[in-house]
Structure prediction request, 212 residues.
Amino acid sequence: MSAHLTPAQIKSRLDHPVIDADGHWIEYGPVFTEQLRKVGGEAAVRGWNAVGGGTRGVLAMSVEERRRRRISQEAFWAHPAKNTRDFATAVFPRLLYERLDEIGLDFAIIYPTGGLRVPRVGDGEARRAACRAYNIVTAEYFRDFSDRMTPAAIIPMHTPEEAIEELDYAVKQLGYKVAMLGSLMGPAGRSGRQGGGRSRPLRRVARPNRAR
Prediction:
């Protein structure tokens, strides 16, 4: 038996609610892709698939190449496999809901995992279709558990118009309470990693070792 207290035991000693403000769920690729196709068609699938393989590609680069291209280290630890029940908990909203007391949470705000990258996709049609389909599918997945969990909508931010349109739809039509605003994209139409442009920082900042 572990000498450490369980999350539930720790929570029993508290006199206030425990809210996870930055939880994440893992979208199960094969099933999730088909759900996106049903809702948003091939454009949505194209946008979703555009973000696949990013971690593998980054890990194949040298540190020098990542530094030169201004690419950060991806989260290679995001899919634990040793404890399959814990992995399933991150994949299936119902199982997470059933384990909230065991985990020691009263309420959880759930952010995407793969969906974090979708707003960066450079293909405008695919980006917007994937964001819309993602928000519809995710809202349905979590709808029955809204008393203790709420998911975040993903909002594309390449232009003010697309951001306002998706945010309005997510809040007014789908009932979202939380939004994840896209970031790290460059001007629309420029090419770059994952199809979206990235503006390089100022040269002085990008080359900190140069003599000033």
Q: What stands out?
A: Residues 25-206 form one domain. Strands lie at 19-24, 107-111, 149-155, 178-181. Residues 188-206 have pLDDT under 50 and may be disordered. The first strand starts at residue 19 and ends at 24.
